[in-house]
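Tokens for chain A. Residues wanted.
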């Protein structure tokens, strides 16, 4: 059976409350039952807008996700957000390991692994991001980096738990730069990720795991990327802030 397509919008630290509501409304209206049958859709607004956006999305085919979480259920962790709180706020998904946290905030594979376990314990589905820096690609270290991030990040997970994880391959040099990976580069990396998952969790898990591509995805390049055999969806940043652009990306799955 072919794998489902899954496209998520990462709104990062953008939108006012009113913009967030309107964006969610337009996306929800645009994802009709025909489109919803072809592609799983989620949007990931900033934390303070999760509840109002959940309200807007209620009854629609668009799921809610958060952009990060802590690994504990509760505690003296000033400024952190528990995965259980995210569940209660209506989230089904959480992004973990985004490069803007790995490289911008120094989050390690080990730390991300704790978050992943915490999120799964809370019943969230995790979008786990991996990807190499430009210097690493140029030094031919892409596969080594991806392997390290997968081994470290997914440590201690069972094949059953992996069913609640989507991998997002986001080459750091393609994020927010307008410089998208070629279809060949994306497919090559995705196939490598799937082979690594097969080694770690078995061929059945590898066959079923969804692998999104992220990095300057736009309506103009989405179709070419999505038709690659190992590209099962995308994690969209900038273009997900525009309802028409995001919907146009979704419609490439029709
Ligand atoms: P852009 O689509 O803006 O390049 O961002 C990609 C991304 O980081 C999604 O998580």
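Reply:
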């Amino acid at each position: 059976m072919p794998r489902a397509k899954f496209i998520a919008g990462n709104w990062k630290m953008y939108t006012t409350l009113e913009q967030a509501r309107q964006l969610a409304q337009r996306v929800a209206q645009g994802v009709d039952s025909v489109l919803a049958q072809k592609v799983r859709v989620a949007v990931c607004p900033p934390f303070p807008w999760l509840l109002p956006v959940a309200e807007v999305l209620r009854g629609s085919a668009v799921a809610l996700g958060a952009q990060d979480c802590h690994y504990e259920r509760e505690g003296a962790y000033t400024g952190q957000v528990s995965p259980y709180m995210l569940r209660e706020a209506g989230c089904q998904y959480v992004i973990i390991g985004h490069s803007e946290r790995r490289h911008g905030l120094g989050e390690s594979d080990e730390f991300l692994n704790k978050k992943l376990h915490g999120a799964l314990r809370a019943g969230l589905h995790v979008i786990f991001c991996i990807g190499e820096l430009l210097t690493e690609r140029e030094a031919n270290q892409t596969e080594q980096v991806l392997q390290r991030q997968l081994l470290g990040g997914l440590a201690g997970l069972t094949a059953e738990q992996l069913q609640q994880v989507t991998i997002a391959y986001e080459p750091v040099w393609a994020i927010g730069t307008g410089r998208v990976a070629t279809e060949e580069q994306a497919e090559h990396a995705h196939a490598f990720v799937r082979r690594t998952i097969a080694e770690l969790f078995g061929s059945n898990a590898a066959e079923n795991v969804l692998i999104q591509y992220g990095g300057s995805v736009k309506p103009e390049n989405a179709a070419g990327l999505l038709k690659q055999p190992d590209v099962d969806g995308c994690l969209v940043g900038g273009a997900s802030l525009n309802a028409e652009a995001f919907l146009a990306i979704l419609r490439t799955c029709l």
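The two ends are 17 Å apart (CA to CA). DSSP finds 13 helices and eight strands in the chain.
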